[in-house]
Amino acid sequence: MRSKLAPLAALTVAAVGLALAGCSTGGGSGDGADVTTITFGNWRVEDASLWEENVIPAFEKAHPDIKVTYQPTGTDDYNAAIQSQIESGTGPDVMMCRPFDVNRAWIKDGYFDDLSGLDGIDGFTDTALAAWQGDDGDPYCVPIASVLAGFYYNKAIFSELGLKVPTTMAEFTDVLKAIKDDGKYTPLALGSADGWQLSYNVLDSLGPNYWQGEDGRLGLIDGTKKLTDPEFVDAFQAVSDLKSYMPDGFESLTYEDQMQLFTLGKAAIMPDGSWDVTAASATGLDVGIFAPPVQKAGDQRYLQEMPDQGVGLNADSKNKDAAKVFLSWLASSDFQSIYVDKVPGFFSMGSEPVEYTNALAQEFADLKTDALLTPRLQLDRLSAGTPPLDDDTWAVLQTVLNDGVSAEDATTTLQTNLDSWYTPAS
Amino acid sequence: MTAVPLKPRSESRAKPSRVRLQKGEASSAIAVHALLIVFAIVAILPILVVVMNSFKTTMGIFGAPFAVPGADTFNLDGYKNVFTRGNFAANYLNSIIVTVATIVATIVLATAAAWALVEYKVRISPLLTGFFILGIMLPIRLGTVPIIKMMVATHLIDTLLALVLVYTAMQLPLAIALMMTYFRSVPGELKEAARMDGASEFQVLGIALPLVRPGLAAVASITMLPVWNDLWFPLILAPSKANQTVTLGVQQFVGQFQSDYPALLAALTLGALPLIVLFTVFSRQFIQGLSAGYGK
Amino acid sequence: MIRTGTRYRLLALFVLPALLVYVGFSVYPLLSSVALSFFDTADGGSVFTGFGNYVYLFTDPYVSERFWNALRNSVLFFGIHLVVELPIGLLMAALLTSNSIRRSRGVYRTLLFIPATLSVVIVGFLWRLIINPLWGLISFPLLGDPSTALPTISLMSVWQYIGIPMIFLFTALIAIPDDILEASRIDGARAWSTFWQIKFPLILPQFGLISILTYIWTFNGFDIVYALNGSAPGPNYSTDILGTMFYRTFFGSSGQVADTDLGATIASVVFFIILVTTAAYFVVLQRRLKTYEL
């Protein structure tokens, strides 16, 4: 009996299901007559509640006729999702822009409207806009936030072992050595399973002090410098030298693992980006931050400041007027002060000064004083072909740490691969 | 496709010849049990680790990941977070709707097609069969962009129906191939006798259907798993909060609470549980179906 | 016997619904994507290039190296499933059919199948925790060493999916007619030799079928590697399989510009490889297996 009823029951459920699915087709567009709803596509799944509870309500209060839907996709799937949606005409009204090469490709493919003339876009410097300019030099995305990279340290461990915050590479090595000799703590919370963070949080953080920030970066782009030049080889060597201070089995430790290691108080120092200020202090640890050490005392200090998030206007959007109101608001200092306050670890790219209520975020911001700023080495121009220098660096750094490939061989590989497609724009 | 006609016998049929276990059988029974217990432990223990740790504090998880939650490590914050932040009830409902609808659609379409391909042999039958079987090998993800375009054109984008259509298309080839092997083993006399009695072709199919019940169960099981667990098409075809499936909901939650391990493990546990429960509850019927005899 | 004309009409009636859904939502979208592999899309325009993308895939030093690497890894990924998943799945199925455990058969079957119901998000997560060198059971960085990373991931996948060949072969084994088995029991044949001499040859076609399905599934594999190691799976691409290479190329990543034409080319080549191997299998092997037909 039961078996005869089962398919019937299943059919009923299916029929109800299809009916429900049918109903939801019409939903979404039927809000109040004078309220426009725009969607905001982005990859910051982590910040969903911060945006939904703090940032967006502030906008909607000022603009009661516009509602904003926060639509996050995990960063790994973001490009695939946005490209599929835009190509098929279902993209969000406004969306986050990847910096540099990926965005240039998106601009070329006509994903965005040119934002020249948008209210508030003039408030940004050319440097702030550079990551999202088209080949025509026009702005295509409103700069929202930049991120910094540095070294988190556990203050309790430092005072227990009587250590001082290092400012030169020699002092840095001494500190690491002292922690290792003591034996109680892992000196460096760092794993190599995630190639990207070896590149972004270690090489591109320590490196600018070697290749002198923009000098080295722009030198690679215009072809006057090669990765095989001594300043780059030395930077790779500096990463390679960290190996003996990393935890056992670091080869398979992920980015999430190292955060646990640090927040559980088992490791003294962790190289990481400013976006993790909340996570790093979540367990109540007394955490401090120090800048990437310079080679010799008295050297000019360089710091990675990476344009991270811009927001652009979908060229196919049906709600462009409302979307532009939102974008202008994102360009205002009203937004910037709410944002840096509620989403700590991201830094305003506007020209007006803003205050950071989060102590760690302020510490990060203080690192900028007296430092020359430079974005990550690989992302501008050098990742527009195959193999992109970005991905290539991740893989090569893994071979340096895991397989003992020398800094010379590593940089030679990278330069050879880059030469295979890149012609310097002189 | 396959050659051996499946002539299942009833699993539960009592053997007339069954006698008390002899000595040799008793020792072999112990060996069989021992092996199966080892396999079962390997299969289940890792899952229990996740479930167990979801009831612990972060300190408890990483201090001793394989210890049972104790007085100082027990903690329900993970679940609290999931229930306040997550949207699990709606997500479950969406997943169930999509999965059940896909199973039903796949079974209905595949049964009809397989029946006809076996039963009404004409010159193009083998060609059609081959064309369907090709589909088993296709990586459907490659067709993503055209699929979205079609869904947009038909206003099906961001509906559960879009998912059901794509999944049905994805599962049909294997389902047809499987059902064909079952239909091939339906005795010809049975069908001919029905036709002689003047039964319509629908009625003949109706007579054959009970005999392929195991096949229906097999198709249902093989359809259920990839559909329930798929991440890609929910993300692309039905991403809005109202239409999110469990797997997508869990993944988004994981992204949002990357370092909140109790919440993350709680979300993973809640994401896995329904299918495990469903499978456990239905597996008897399910596999009895797979192995049940021809109308016995 | 039904007349030919009627048969055509009946065939159309029964097959058409399935055919429409299948062609509309699977075949057509795939074909129109495959078409991309014959075009070069750059700077907004699209130019027909014939086999240009294919030539590039196989001759460019970097791209071809990545491709051969991914192909080798896919072969290994399949190989491990073939030599671990199928034999153990067969053993499980054989044990389950043993008469001595009749009463608990259902319990075992359910327990052994449960991992197959999990999503890869969970599978990847729980195994990462268990083999984590810091707090897991094994201090060796299995996923960090290029020589063990892919075998480790393959075994996770085997752990998850072993229930499928198990159930598949189990149903085949219990479908063997009683009279054949009764006959052999009277002969006094022992369980071991009964299995290899009588049962296994009878289910060989099913064993062949599940092998070829495993081949197709592993060559289209993607999820487990992506869940664990992302779309540029390290260390240094040692866990990059064809599925992840296709995904990375077709959709790009945070720092890599998407190349849809090349992505479509890779997918087409993979499809071609699977098609040829599968066809060869059916022509050469499955035909021989038919000799055991009852």
UniProtKB/TrEMBL annotation, chain A:
One of its GO terms (cellular component) is cell envelope. Its main location: other. Residues 1-21 form the signal peptide. It is found in: Cell envelope. Keywords: Signal, Transport. SUPFAM superfamilies: Periplasmic binding protein-like II. PROSITE patterns: PROKAR_LIPOPROTEIN, SBP_BACTERIAL_1. Pfam families: SBP_bac_1. Belongs to the bacterial solute-binding protein 1 family. This is Probable sugar-binding periplasmic protein. It comes from Naasia lichenicola.
TrEMBL record, chain C:
Pfam families: BPD_transp_1. The chain crosses the membrane at residues 75-98, 110-138, 158-177, 198-218, 262-284. This is Sugar ABC transporter permease. It is a multi-pass membrane protein. Residues 71-283 form the ABC transmembrane type-1 domain. It is found in: Cell membrane. Belongs to the binding-protein-dependent transport system permease family. InterPro entries: MetI-like, MetI-like_sf, UgpAE/MalFG_permease. It comes from the Bacteria. The keyword rRNA-binding does not apply. One of its GO terms (biological process) is transmembrane transport. CDD domains: TM_PBP2.
